[in-house]
Amino acid sequence: MMIYPRHIEQALLQRLQTFPVVGITGPRQAGKTTLAKRIVKEVGKPSIYLDLELPSDLNRLRNAELFLKENEENLVIIDEVQRQPELFPLLRALVDQRRIPGRFLILGSASPELLRQSSETLAGRISYLELTPFHFKELPKNDLNWHWLRGGFPPSLFAFDEVAASQWLQDFITTFIERDLPQFGLNAPPQTLRTLLQMLTGVHANLLNFSTLANSLGLTMPTVKRYLSYFENAYFIRYVSPWHINMGKRLVKTPKVYFRDSGVLHHLAGISDMNQLLGNQIAGASWEGYVLQQVIANLPQNVLPFFYRTKEGSEIDLLIVKGNQPIMAIEIKMSSSPTVSKGIRIAHEDTGRPPLYIVTPHPGDYPLDENIRVCDLNYILEKI
Questions:
Q1: Same-domain check for residues 171 and 125
Q2: Does the CA dihedral 53-22-290-114 come out positive or negative?
Q3: What is the pLDDT of residues 237-248, one digit of tens each?
Q4: Residue 3 in domain
Q5: Which residues share a beta bridge with 206?
Q6: CATH code of the domain covering residue 91
Q7: 256 and 208 in contact (C-beta within 8 Å)?
Q8: What residues make up the domain containing 337?
Q9: Could you give phi then psi for residue 372, rounded to 5 degrees?
Q10: Which DSSP letter does residue 248 get?
């Protein structure tokens, strides 16, 4: 597999020059370890790498305080840090004794929120960066269908053929359910979690109805919410919240839910090639989720993604907001000749008529109306 530069590399180097602890979070197999091993060559100080899934490295931390103090002049990289949350109080104490930039680089397959639930906080001492699976702009060739079908996880994306990609995705999902989630603290029947994931393929890119899921599984609504919170904090799904600033409208207040990786969605839906995808009823929802993930992965830190929908059905798929002000609206369509419905126009007016882009999987861009443009994924990623 070829090694490609990742979009957070420069930000990572800058944080290591500023903060005593830097954390890279993101799903397992997104490329965190590869990135860390690449970046140490540019840090300008010796480094030592510890993988907490290896018994030999765990043995080196039998007396963790002594070992880490002996390596205080090195950048210590700790991989899969969520496996040993008891290290966090020690890292905090060591940083407080000698606060210099670039002491620790920790890698974790869980969100900062999930890490904080089981560890001593490093607030004020750590800066987190999220590494997503490969997004479209990171790839050397603009093969949209290839990336959309397989998703961004390197072992799937760069697999020799669709059979190998499918096998990896199957193993990845099984590992997530049977090993990762219990490790994070979710003790639930694996078959229930697998069934819940399968059910989510039917509501991907739609409003999330916790009650319907709970009834279908024979579980309570709080239980389903708890299960889904683990899915979210392990970077498997994403919630997008509705934008609520316009208080004069009857607005939907339920979040929409998306699988963060299109390859995972397609595998769970039994889709293994483009013909199957384009002929499947989830094709439109899959395209919406894929575009949304690519856009969000490239957003600046000071802007936030929302959707907009009124009770009457006026809707915009993705609203990019900066300081409570919509600065861009994105509608995501499969059609090669999209039109703007009355509902979209009303939503556009409601949100202050920011530039509206209709993103399709077809190449090219052209104006459709005043302040409304049809474009492809390349165009919108350049705009943000």
A1: no
A2: positive
A3: 999 999 986 556
A4: no
A5: 257
A6: 3.40.50.300
A7: yes
A8: 136-383
A9: -130, 130
A10: T
